[in-house]
User: Fold this.
Amino acid sequence: MTTRAGFVALIGEPNAGKSTLTNRMVGAKVSIVTHKVQTTRARIRGVAMEGDTQIVFVDTPGLFQPRRRLDRAMVAAAWGGAADADIVVLLVEAHRGVTEGVERILDGLQEIGQGRTVALAINKIDKVPSEKLLSLTQDLNQRYEFAETFMISAERGYGVDDLRAWLATRLPEGPWLYPEDQIADLPMRMIAAEMTREKLTLRLHQELPYQLTVETESWEERKDGSAKVDQMIYVVRDGHKGIVLGKRGETIKAVSQAARAELEEFTGRKIHLFLQVKVRPNWLDEAERYSEMGLDFKDGN
Assistant:
C-alpha cells in the first residue's frame, strides 16, 4: 500500500468559510465556527483520511489588515501556515468577489506561492447566479495561475468531496503523520477553551468584540470516566466582567451549559465545567496568553 500525507493550508479573508470547510472535510468540529469575523486564532490542524492519504488541514486565521499586536500575530500565523504547507487553498466568497482583502492575499501569494501548488475554492456558490461564478473564476485565474478551481459550499457540502479527492492525489508519498483515529493535533484543553470562547462570542454579539480569551487551567480525569474542567475567562475591563457574567450570572450560566453540552458530545463523556472571569487589563500584551492560543508573541511586533 502506498500512503500519502501532507499539509494543506486554507487561507482567505475573515469569515470566508475556512473553519466550516475544515470541519466539513474532517467530519468533526475541530475549528471554532461563528458568524463573527476573526474567530480563528491558532493554526488548528484537522486530520482527514481520503483512501490511503492523510490530509492535515491548517486552518489559518483570516487574513486582514492588522492594527494591533494580536492582529499582527494572527496574520503572521496565517502566512506562516501557508508557507509551511504542501498545498495552499485560497477560499473566496462567491458573493463578495475580488475585494481589497482578496487582492492583498493574491499579492502575498505571488511571494510564497512560487513552486507551491495553489488551488482556488470559490465558496458559498449557492448565493450567486452561475454566470457571475464564471466571470469571477476567469477574473481570479487571470490574476493568479491556480493549479485547479473548485466551486463549493462548505456549509452545505457541495463540491467538498471533489476538493478533498483532488488534494489526496496531489500530496507527497510518505507515511501518515498522525494516528488514523486522531482528528486534531490540538490538545483537548485548547479545544475546550475554543468551544467556550465560541459560545461567548455567539452570546455576547457585538458587546465584546474579541477582547477576551479563555484558558483551560486544569483538566482532571475522574475515576467514573468523567472529567472536571476549570476554565478562566480573561477580560480587559471591569465593565466587561459584568457583561460576561450577565444579570444574576445568567449569561455565564448559559455559556457554561452550552459549552459543556458540546464538549460532552465531542468527547463522548460527562464533563463538569467550571468557569471564572478575571480582569487582566494587559492580557493582549502578555506572551503567555499568546502561547496558550498557539500564536507567536514576537510576530505581533
